[in-house]
Every structure is written in C-alpha cells, then in structure tokens.
Specification:
Strand order of the largest sheet: 1-2-3
Structural class: alpha+beta
Order of helices and strands: HHEHEEH
Distance between the termini: 31 Å
Helix content: 40-55%
Number of helices: 4
Radius of gyration: 19 Å
Largest sheet: 3 strands, antiparallel
Length: 129
C-alpha cells in the first residue's frame, strides 16, 4: 500500500501536474473499504548537517570561491525540509489538491514540519472556497 502512495507522488513529481493522474485500484479500493471519500496524505523528506560537517561545507565553499576567483561559490545549506501534501478523491479517482513546500528548515523539529503543513493546508482552503 505504501508503495502505491509513493508511486503516486513520484508520478506527480515527474509530470509536474496532477491533471490526468488517476488513482490506481489499490489506493481506491483501500480507501473505499474504509468508507473514505477523501484522504489527505503528507510526505516529508529532508536533510540536516552536524555542526562539524556544516563548518567543513562552509570552508569548502570559501575555498572554491577563492580558486575560481569568485566566479563560482557554492553556499552551504545547514538543513532542508520538503513537505508534500495531497488530497485524494476516491469518487473521481483523482488528486484534488497537491502542493509541495521546500524550505531551509531543520526537518527533525516537529514545529518546522507543522508550520510547513499548515501553510500548505491554508493554501488548500484558500483555493477551494
């Protein structure tokens, strides 16, 4: 079941649109057995750096900047969090809503994930009225 949800998210990410994406039988049957017309799925991924690793990345960026005479200087990112939120419609077998939000936030802090999900859901309710 989990693989079906990941496949659905991957399909949308690859196509870059939800139009024409149909829920497969596995997802539809799973939700209909639970008498669920709509389902909200959230997915979070990200990375974080340890203190020593972040310092090394900063130093590497400075070194590359000096070697390239400032033409290229990578900027070290301490953390990154991406949250994807989608609403599945079992009756119409489609995705009613899909948004993703990426920010340079610590993905291991629940408050950061909560804020990202709230921002995504606020946009759902804003556009659905």
């Amino acid at each position: 079941m989990l693989k079906s949800f990941f496949d659905l998210i991957n399909t949308v990410e690859r196509k870059r649109k939800i139009k024409g994406v149909v829920l497969n039988d596995t997802i539809t049957d799973f939700l209909q057995q639970r008498k669920t017309k709509y389902a909200i799925i959230t997915f979070n991924t990200g990375f974080t750096r340890e203190q020593g690793n972040y310092g090394k990345e900063l130093a590497k960026g400075v070194g590359i900047g000096i070697l390239t005479l400032g033409m290229y200087a990578p900027i070290a990112i301490k953390a990154n969090s991406t949250v994807i939120c989608c609403v599945l419609d079992t009756k119409n077998r489609n995705i009613a809503f899909y948004r993703r939000k990426t920010a340079e936030l610590e993905p291991l802090k629940p408050k950061n994930i909560e804020r990202q999900i709230k921002a995504l859901m606020d946009s759902f309710f804003l556009f659905s009225n």
